[in-house]
Amino acid sequence: MEANGSILTNKYSEGLPGARYYGGNEHIDILENLARERALKAFNLDPKVWGVNVQPYSGSTANFAAFTALIQPQDRIMGLGLPDGGHLTHGYYTAKKKITASSIYFQSFPYRVDPSTGIIDYAQLETNANLFKPRLVVCGGSAYPRDWDYARLRKIADGQGAYLLSDMAHISGLVAAGEQSSPFEYCDVVTTTTHKTLRGPRAGLIFFRKDKESDIEARVNAAVFPACQGGPHNNTIAGIAVALKQAADPAFKTYAKQVRANAAAMASVLVKHGYRLQTDGTENHLILWDLRPLGLTGSKVEKICDAAHITLNKNAVAGDTSALVPGGVRVGASALTSRSMVEKDVEVRLDCLFD
Ligand SMILES: *Cc1c(COP(=O)(O)O)cnc(C)c1O
User: Fold this and answer.
1) Which contiguous run of DSSP H or E holds residue 222?
2) CATH 3.90.1300.10 for domain 251-354
3) CATH fold of 7-247
4) Tens of pLDDT, residues 315-337
């Protein structure tokens, strides 16, 4: 927050380090290069194979820039459906409306989780990909409690000659800490926000393979600026550099491990008391609590928890038809872990709700 609120707010620097459209950027260049170096280091990436653009203002703009770089307007994309845990920007539309730029400017078709297990139905995705023939397969989600089968997704994308993009926004802190599979081995491009489990300022990153033939590097950089954005927010980039330094510290690994342990503890207390979780548990930082067996909606539980100063949010669970009155809530363990809670704290607090 100190970096984010610093005088770095005041400098324009369109372009990239060493190639700006403004003078007076010698310190900004050092800053942006430092952020780039730290981003590659945080995810163990070889700078000869991977590059990164640290200028996206946020996750949504990072995704739109990445799509702009990889495919043409009206090309076909497949992403995890919003009611199945995907993100709005992965092509979401309804029967009546194209909801985000990702469905307005591209043709999209969602893939789903298996409603009986809550796990992504990779077989159905493969079948539908054979029919729909996407140019881009997007993986990653905002409400998916399980790890991703990147090898399988790569195979499905390769079957169509499609790009594979991972949007690891929710889990990037866990990926940096080695607490979740890394998408980098299998993906062409990886986007992320920097403010979820990565615990940085509100911004986005786009990682790309430095493949000389397809020149994804130049396409991503041109898509961020000037195609989708103007001047980078250098104060935010400074905040990203700080967050990435923290993420490289051994203490961050301990934190990420604890986030997962706390989410698992939350899951096991609820399951012990007979409640239903989507996928029966979690492998990451969040749980999806299916309230339908209780005859409750997520909207009601969110309101009641607000009254008790418990902050969570209503969320669709597999098989839900309405996004306005969804059947579940999404609960994360990151913030309470930052406040030093461990499994015992989670268990005691949850258990006493049921006494
Ligand atoms: C949060 C999120 C985004 C969007 O990030 P904003 O910074 O809110 O624009 C994109 N993708 C996923 C998977 C997310 O969880």
Assistant:
1) helix 216-222
2) no
3) Aspartate Aminotransferase; domain 2 (3.40.640)
4) 999 888 776 789 999 999 999 99
